[in-house]
Design brief:
By secondary structure, the chain is of the alpha+beta class. It has helices spanning about 15-20, 65-80, 95; strands at about 5, 25-30, 35, 55. A hairpin with a 4-residue loop joins β2 and β3 (about 35). The longest helix has 12 residues, at about 65-80.
Length: about 110
């Protein structure tokens, strides 16, 4: 079982979570982070660190966001060269996007 980055990370991309990950399983795209499910050890350290509350255990992903389970797996492979292990500034308008629903359409690959 892995942890999954979900909808509220899109256009926010807070990176507080990456610093606590003991296995460096976060990967970064232009406006979203993902967790590689094959690397995640299900330690749960990242979940409370996310200011946007966008990280869930795979079996607790909110209804309607199940597509993020496959998306994390797919994009972690696509973004394999973009492993992120240190905190960076969030996107400039992250506060405005935090809490906006249905942001999948804005995800940049």
């Amino acid at each position: 079982m892995a942890f999954i980055v979900t909808d509220n990370c899109v256009k926010c991309k807070y990176t507080d979570c990456v610093e606590v990950c003991p296995v460096d399983c976060f990967y970064e795209g232009p406006n979203f982070l993902v967790i590689n499910p094959d690397e995640c050890i299900d330690c749960a350290l990242c979940e409370p660190e996310c200011p946007a509350q966008a990280i869930y255990s795979e079996d607790e992903v909110p209804a309607g966001q199940e597509q993020y389970i496959e998306l994390n797996a797919e994009l972690s492979e696509e973004w394999a060269a973009n492993n992120i292990t240190e905190k960076k500034d969030a996107l400039p308008d992250a506060e405005e996007w935090d809490g906006v629903a249905d942001k999948l359409q804005y995800l940049e690959r």
